[in-house]
Amino acid sequence: MVYVHGGAFIGGARTASDNEVIAEELATLGYVTYNIDYCLADPTANPPAAGFPVQVQDVADAVRALSKPGFDGGRVNVDPSRVAVWGGSAGATLAAETGVTLGSTGATPVAAMVGWSGGYDFLDFRDSNAQAEKDAQAFLGCDPQTDKSAICQSQAREGSAALKVTATTPPMSLWNSSDELVPITQWQDMKKALTAAHIPSSPHELIGHLHSNAYTHQAFCPTVTFLTSYLGPYTGTCIPPPNPGGSGAG
């Protein structure tokens, strides 16, 4: 498993407790888990440093590294045909982009993807909000809602996993809350694209406002159950970690 943290493309870290608890629980269940960092976007730089495509390349490089002989000093024996990518929030966007991109090449396939509250179509402005617009600006280096230039519109299309789903796209566990930071329309876009391409998926809409890792307790074990079809069975018993803040309710 390659686990990708969130942080609006400009922040976050793999060492945040809500990320570590997911990675550690996956390892406890017997999955070799790599909780990675990636190059952060910097909208304040001159010129601004966009997240796309560098952030996707960083995650793809992590996936590719797992198939290299002698990776990790030979400490683990990774089956490159059973590598999944899991991300939350911005990490979900990167996980989906990586899976779709590598799936289209066929050279380094991803066995499955997990997206918790990701943005998948940067040309869909339905239910857009100020944070979603800031995220698009940070990821793409432009705001496709206001910048109608060919360059920005092309960047938005290339950075939208839902617009690039094909018959070789990996299966996906797809989660979003009904009224949260990321518009539910993004979840709908990805769900529709996967269905149209006949890609196996497990879409879940949670009622409420919890975003990404904030619904860890509810989503973790069902997500892992989905992954068993592509990574093999886990060992022991799945115990869902609490939501950040210590509560298992929400």
Describe this structure in words.
The protein has 250 residues and is α/β, with parallel strands linked by helices. The chain has a single domain (2-231), classed as Alpha/Beta hydrolase fold, catalytic domain (Rossmann fold), CATH 3.40.50. Helix content is 36%, strand content 11%. Helix 2 crosses helix 3. The protein is globular, with a radius of gyration of 17 Å. The protein starts with a strand and ends in a 19-residue tail after the last helix.
- Report, as a whole number of angstroms, the end-to-end distance: 27 Å
Low-confidence stretches: 246-250
Oligomer: single chain
Supply the number of structural domains.
1
Which CATH first-tier class would you pick?
A: Alpha Beta
Corresponding CATH superfamily: Alpha/Beta hydrolase fold, catalytic domain
The backbone outline, from C-alpha atoms, is globular
For the record, the CATH architecture stands as 3-Layer(aba) Sandwich
Helices and strands: which structural class? alpha/beta
Q: What sequence of helices (H) and strands (E) makes up the elements?
A: EHEHEHEHHEHEH
Q: How confident is the prediction overall: mean pLDDT?
A: 93
Number of strands: 6
